[in-house]
Amino acid sequence: MNEMSVKEKQPRLLELFVRSIRNQRLGHAYLFEGARGTGKKELANWIARTIFCENPQDGNPCFSCRSCLRIDEGNLPDLIELAPDGQSIKVDQIRQLKTEFFKSSVESSKKVYIIEDAEKMTISAANSLLTFLEEPGKDTYLFLLTTVKENILPTIRSRCQIIHFQPLKREVMEELLLSAGIDSQDAELLSAVTNDLEEAKGLAEDELFHALKEKSWNWFKLLTSSDPMAFIYVPTSLLEILKDKSHSLFYLDLLLFHYRDLLYVSFGNEEAVVQKKQLPEYKKMAQFLKDSKKITQAIESILQGKQALNANVQTQGVLESIVLKNQ
């Protein structure tokens, strides 16, 4: 983790906690909620780093003292991190955590606990955690990280300060992807697909992603030109690659990006276009279609297709229905 990633992902929240630390108003228990990749873990680690830093600078860690460096190495015993064991956080894991609660700090008077995917705590584990929340120790801090705060017990939520993490701005995500060495065209699209840098990196290296991207563009061109081959393209090119529901849903999402970009162009809002390399083609298509109602109807048909897939309607029937609705 580095300071820059926190500043890029959540500058407002970073400043909020800088002020809290500077004014010695840091709470004992926080629930960080937001989508994956929005910086929850990075901010929790940044706060922990500031708490343990030997040379803090106006509410910020120095990043160079012994404690800061040991956090980088994952070798600071008073910073305890917990993640699900398999599909859930089990009561034995929380019991071990409770044992740590009542131990003296190893190297300082402070202790910090970070629990990832806190919504995956079993009921027993969550109830066990209430002990800490009801009687937090001095200089002891707990950070619960979740993507679904509604799945956290109300008794836990009520004892935490809830901090919402906004989705990353697309430009920020795109810059992070470019910095990670991802191709600019892929970075444009992936920045709209996900906020999770690791997921985006995985997709960029996934042959299936690139195949779906290519086929979504090919089918999009056939659909917008009302080419009869759009219907034939379903059994001859799409079904062989759309092996399960998740692939089909993702494919329709990629198709939606094209139609939304086309709609932006038709309204003269080229700045909002995600896949700027296709801008010349989008302009030609917008001129051909003339009426933006056709684009919105196509978007509606794709959204209906996603609903049908989620209701377990067969993929071929869903895709052929999209073609028929856009003739």
Automatic annotation (TrEMBL):
GO BP: DNA-templated DNA replication
GO molecular function, one term: DNA-directed DNA polymerase activity
EC number(s) given by UniProt: 2.7.7.7
Domain of life where this protein originates: Bacteria
Keyword Nucleotidyltransferase: yes
Class of this enzyme: transferase
Cross-referenced SUPFAM superfamilies: P-loop containing nucleoside triphosphate hydrolases
Keywords: Nucleotidyltransferase, Transferase
Keyword Transferase: yes
NCBIfam families reported for this sequence: holB, PRK08058.1
Cited PANTHER family: DNA POLYMERASE III SUBUNIT DELTA, REPLICATION FACTOR C / DNA POLYMERASE III GAMMA-TAU SUBUNIT
Protein name: DNA polymerase III subunit delta
Species whose genome carries this gene: Jeotgalibaca ciconiae
Name of the coding gene: holB
